[in-house]
């Protein structure tokens, strides 16, 4: 619980378990835009088919007071079952997938392949002039890979955003 | 026996509209405020064929929502609204946001084009769920008649549970015609929405210990105490007396604690009393019950009550630590929390520092000595009426009459004078638009109050500008013989705007003069009501008495001093101890910063 105006900004990975009903994503996004909160990444997909629930993962940033506010605002939405601040709760895994298109020839081609190997990215499409790499990992690792591809002919990036959960036996 | 393709018995099935009305009836709805149109004709047809639910035909959909708000706030029940698709729904939006900001439980039924036309820019189609998503606590689009009953029951549950608010149910026309079986309210808990109302015992014990050990405590109460029901107001009285602490209230909480009690300091905030604001500034322990640290109340945040340890009771966790960080958070219903605090306060082993408390009261009485709401009413024949005096006389005359009296207001200076000079001793008697500050609220809200309390005296304290925003409802008053009294403090200005222009914009009165006003007496008469006017102080009491004595609706046009300002005033961006007192006191010009100028 905060008792002072702490101005330090932190990042938070928040998972939200919601009733899978029409408009629920619009409610969450509207909350962020309407109240001026940041969204660094947002993913949503059904996770418990039988029970009609979806999981939304949001990466956001703000002061401790703002993040506490974001969680409280999410929690009071009627179709929200549970809100978990994975960053605050402790160790968690957060992964995203990126498709990275690189257009290059000659030495650059070999270098791109070598680096993709080092990053454990997979080649999912190749032509004489191009590659599409599939890369999965933590956000900073994906960022690093994309930066490395930039001088080699980076042409296009498509990212999924973050999927996350707590390590160990803890569940949402 | 008739069966449909699915083999269900169609004779036991009803139309969607009939299911709707049955669900409303089971939810205790007795009155709907509404306005018809093509998309809701099946509902109007079903209404025509029953007697359980009364329909009040308003003259504008915004007024339907405000009327339902007045009904809800004065009874503690859920208000119900019915409007058509497209323009009907969009007209209702201001009312919905008003109810959202002030935590008023409303269920608003909106018509919609048939499901197969949704998204086709059909006639009178609007994306009602999209438009009202940020304007409601929750909303629904019913896509199948078989979902009707369950959705309506859920909507009422959501509207009244936890922090109350408006809920919209969008009803496509084919769903109103389609057939389905009725389902009674569920007895199982809601899947995901289950707000907590019971306080945490540890937090209560910590709060009680802080309160008991306090040398300069303050109890700051808000609309949440009203939301929690009459029992919470009763418990509040006991808590305040047990602690001996001074009590102040927001605009929204007036009446929860009796205004005439010596422990009450009056309203706090921008136009609150000197003693309430200075007590907030100097206290060592602050107990906030059901108030949301609104900017009208806190003033400049970094100067807000700098020395106090703060306790906050609120049913909505998002109200806690939103504007002001607190030490003890109690997420609970105000009534339950106050009862628990009382018990814990008695049980706490500390002995209260009575001497410190007495010294605190001595300091407070010093501030009270300023008599910050003082004004001077010249009494000579023909003297111009001070607006404060008009409210004061209205209060005294109605109090002496002993009739149950409800006050609604429009928005502006008159609203503040009403809050300062009309002294409420009971909850649910005061209906005002606080959060959104919607001009045009008071007349329709008064209509809703009068429907709920047919024998009570209902008065809208109005400004001449605000009243024109929903003046068409005079016609509704006439149709249903609702004897609402409209008491206009006519200063020929948008006075609140004029005041800011005088104090903050160098006296450049840009567009704030109420030009070309109607003759309110003739206006009343043309709406089949009585019109009265007081020009000067010697006419005031007679006009008030005649207004009250009239058995139908009245407009009383009270011509008041055009230049009067509302004081005290904490300018935007200033702190509680930088309050400006009025001309009755030596005007202390608090420095208004540029930062303050951008605030509203
Ligand atoms: C022209 C103008 C001037 C104004 N000047 C002032 C002023 O000087 N002073 C002032 O006070 N206001 C003023 N206002 C009103 C102000 O804008 C706010 O509406 C008001 O201060 C909010 O009141 P509140 O904090 O009691 O909260 P409300 O809006 O009434 O909110 C109630 C709070 O209680 C909680 N709650 C709801 N139900 C329960 C329950 N059962 N148990 C516990 N908690 C519950 C809610 O979650 C919420 O946090 C002014 C408005 C206008 C239009
Ligand atoms: C719908 C709406 N529009 C504009 C405002 C801004 N506003 C606040 S008070 C006010 C003037 C109200 O004038 P009047 O009703 O005469 O009341 P007075 O302040 O003179 O008592 C205005 C324009 C508002 N609150 N609501
Ligand atoms: Mg005016």
TrEMBL record, chain A:
The keyword Transferase belongs to this UniProt entry's keyword annotation: yes
Keywords: Amino-acid biosynthesis, Branched-chain amino acid biosynthesis, Transferase
GO molecular function, one term: acetolactate synthase regulator activity
InterPro entries linked: Acetalactate_synth_ssu, Acetolactate_synth/TF_NikR_C, Acetolactate_synth_ssu_C, ACT-like_dom_sf, ACT_dom, AHAS_ACT, AHAS_small-like_ACT
Transmembrane stretches, start-end: none
Start and end residues of each ACT domain: 13-88
Enzyme class: transferase
Pathway membership: Amino-acid biosynthesis; L-isoleucine biosynthesis; L-isoleucine from 2-oxobutanoate: step 1/4; Amino-acid biosynthesis; L-valine biosynthesis; L-valine from pyruvate: step 1/4
GO biological process: isoleucine biosynthetic process; L-valine biosynthetic process
Enzyme Commission designation: 2.2.1.6
Annotated catalysed reactions: 2 pyruvate + H(+) = (2S)-2-acetolactate + CO2
GO CC annotations on file: cytosol
Family recorded in the similarity comment: Belongs to the acetolactate synthase small subunit family.
Subunit structure: Dimer of large and small chains.
Purpose of the protein: Catalyzes the conversion of 2 pyruvate molecules into acetolactate in the first common step of the biosynthetic pathway of the branched-amino acids such as leucine, isoleucine, and valine.
Name of protein: Acetolactate synthase small subunit
Lineage start: Bacteria, Pseudomonadati, Pseudomonadota, Alphaproteobacteria, Acetobacterales
From TrEMBL, chain B:
BP terms from Gene Ontology: isoleucine biosynthetic process; L-valine biosynthetic process
Cofactor(s) the record lists: Mg(2+); thiamine diphosphate
EC numbers for this chain: 2.2.1.6
Cofactor stoichiometry and binding remark: Binds 1 Mg(2+) ion per subunit.
Thylakoid keyword on record: no
Family listed: Belongs to the TPP enzyme family.
InterPro entries the record matches: Acetolactate_synth_lsu, AHAS_TPP, DHS-like_NAD/FAD-binding_dom, THDP-binding, Thiamin_PyroP_enz_cen_dom, Thiamin_PyroP_enz_TPP-bd_dom, TPP_enz, TPP_enzyme_TPP-bd
Catalytic activity: 2 pyruvate + H(+) = (2S)-2-acetolactate + CO2
Domain (Thiamine pyrophosphate enzyme central): residue spans on this chain: 204-341
Keyword set, alphabetical order: Amino-acid biosynthesis, Branched-chain amino acid biosynthesis, Magnesium, Metal-binding, Thiamine pyrophosphate, Transferase
This protein's name: Acetolactate synthase
Domain Thiamine pyrophosphate enzyme TPP-binding: residue ranges: 411-557
GO cellular-component term (any): acetolactate synthase complex
One GO MF term: magnesium ion binding
Residue intervals of the Thiamine pyrophosphate enzyme N-terminal TPP-binding domain: 15-129
Pathway(s) served: Amino-acid biosynthesis; L-isoleucine biosynthesis; L-isoleucine from 2-oxobutanoate: step 1/4; Amino-acid biosynthesis; L-valine biosynthesis; L-valine from pyruvate: step 1/4
